[in-house]
Amino acid sequence: MKKWLLLLFLGFITLTFSFAQVNKADKEWNETELIFLSSVEDMKPYDKLILLLKDGENELNQKRISLLQQKVKDTSDTVIKIRMYWLEAHVFEDIGKRGIALERNLRAYKLAKDTNLLRERAFSAKFLAGNYIKLGLKEQAIIYALDASQIFTKIDDKFNKVILLYTIGDIYYSVENYTEAIKNYSYGYNYAVKNNFLWEQRYTANNLGVAYRQLEKLDSSLYYYRIAKQIATQMQDTIALALATGNIGEILYKKKNYGQAIYLLEEDAQLSNQYKNWSSAANALVLLGRIYRERKNISRSSFYLDSAYKVASQNKLNKTMASVYEEQAKLFVEKDSFKIALYLERKAKLIRDSITHREIAINLAAIQSAFENGQALAQVKILEKENENKQIIIFATTIGLFAAIFFLTLLIYQNQQKKQLNKKLIEKNKETAKQNIQLITQKEKIAALNLNLNQKVEQRTQELEKSVENLAEVRHELDTFMYRASHDLRAPLVRLEGLSNLLKMATKGLEKDSNMQYIYEVHTYIELFDATLKQMDTMLRRLMQLHDLIEEDLFFTEIDNLQLFVEEAKTAAYDYASNGISIKTKMEVHSPLITDKKWLRLIIINLLRNSLIYHNLNNQPVIELFIKVEKEQVLIEVNDNGEGIPADLLGSVFNMFVRSSERSIGSGLGLYLVKKAVNKLEGSVFCNSTPFTQTTFSVYIPNQSAVSPNTTKGNDVNEVFVFA
């Protein structure tokens, strides 16, 4: 018996000494850390300690983390305890245990609130807002962010006040409450300006621009984007500068200021590409493609959209890929290629559906993560409780016989605790089962929604394909009618023209008749009849040209003698309305010209006819034709000082059957045919007019020599021709 008592006594002494050594080592580190943490007035030393903990996972830091947890239990200093909770939360956040990190910050917040430590409460609330944002619980995040903001105002912490204000703005923006987002961004911006926080000024100004853009308040958006750009320039932050530049370009595009928008978007694309901000670069290229498509410059639009596709595909930017496909679909609609457009629209839809499904999956994963973290938290509490029980048992065993009664009482207490714990575990399991049922129900609902969505997409696709087929059938019938009508109507016109000539021959020589007045009237009517026949013939010829424009394929050949080609076109224009007017012609040829001769000839003839018909009746008529041939494009420009086009008709001058003057003797199809021919050649045409001063038609078409660089015959390049 004495032997056993001696062994128990020696074991007690050894265990006590071991505890003393651990507590001594812990105490040495704790005292150093207590001095380090309790003597500061701000958070900078705390931030440094965080960096130390994150710098590798060596043995020293692992010991420090363990000591932090022990210190929370041992210290009586509330401030130190709160900051240890922060450190624990930070470590758990780093290893992905967000539920435990949230629980540690909740402990710190409650302790700070109970002890009325305002500064520690504010930082705890700030950290909790961040935890809830990462878990997708935005309402709780706003509650704690507002609490932190109010306390930072009370303790006059300006910097963290600004951070909380724009954090609240970010939360409201994420739930599409743009009005509240703007209000908090404005508070944050004014506070940052007042205290000269440059980075925060730029961030809140940029976010104000984004929020105002969502509300379509473009002037306000443009104002704040320009402030953000000015600050980014001042800070020499190139990435932020590119972002602000692109944002300004997008707003200018929405305001129809295409020139400045193109310049800024090209600058954004260049800067973003230089600093490998691929998302910004791709978005800028997509918007450039859209602008050129809306301006009917199909070749430039295709160039930018192809560039956007390359950047987006190489960097797996799925949302941008969907935008590229949508813009390319609209481009093919412009070319009347409806099947390709439909195919591209389907690809864009598939990508957007995939993104939507991925977001749903992420949300489900967040719910699952929160649920699993909650389970892990409960398990941690159980393990902590079991560890406490083990320590109590070890301590009770060391005391031995002197604590037998206390040991029995403690066992009874432990049994009661276990019963309560088992009861809680049963309730927790029931709650877990309920949550699992809810998750299964949500998954079933999502599956039903996806099935319904796929059915609707398939139904809409079938309807669209049927509409496209019907449209093609109607178009074919319309083309057949136009062709038959123009050819069948010309036959009686030719016969009428022959009858008119016979009538002229029959009345020839009757001038000496006594009924001279009657003969004169007959000739007058015959001339009117001829003029009407000519107008009808011109109308039918142009309808035939319109049919050919729609149906015929392009046939590119090189124009060997451009000067002769232009002279023939001028002669054809003079046949219609010469009026004795001279056309001054100038050409600059820097490359061989390859295009469809038929449609280029039609463009030149109809532009010159228009100038001849509406020439200046008051002053000396001036008509100038300028042609400039370069490797990639051809410019055809016709200037005159004629009657001009009223400002209210400039927007519709290229429409079918539009006549801008009472002097018009044409069919109203000339400029319409010019527009159709230019579109067929994938070019663009513009008109500027000041009546009786200057009217200019400018046509740009691609030069196919850029596609066939080996062409060497034909016109000598780098030559200038000027002739009447």
Topology:
Blueprint: H1 2-38, H2 44-54, H3 59-74, H4 78-94, H5 98-114, H6 118-134, H7 138-154, H8 158-174, H9 178-194, H10 198-214, H11 218-235, H12 238-254, H13 258-274, H14 278-294, H15 298-314, H16 318-334, H17 338-399, H18 404-507, H19 516-551, E1 557-558, H20 562-576, E2 583-589, E3 594-595, H21 597-613, E4 623-629, E5 633-640, H22 670-680, E6 684-690, E7 694-702, E8 719-723
Parallel strand pairs: 2-4
Antiparallel strand pairs: 1-3, 2-8, 4-5, 5-7, 6-7
Helix pairs in contact: 2-4, 3-4, 4-5, 5-6, 5-17, 6-7, 7-8, 8-9, 8-10, 9-10, 10-11, 11-12, 12-13, 12-14, 13-14, 14-15, 14-16, 15-16, 16-17, 17-18, 18-19, 19-22, 20-21, 21-22
Task: Write a concise synopsis of the structure shown.
This protein is of the alpha+beta class. It has helices at residues 2-38, 44-54, 59-74, 78-94, 98-114, 118-134, 138-154, 158-174, 178-194, 198-214, 218-235, 238-254, 258-274, 278-294, 298-314, 318-334, 338-399, 404-507, 516-551, 562-576, 597-613, 670-680; strands at 557-558, 583-589, 594-595, 623-629, 633-640, 684-690, 694-702, 719-723.
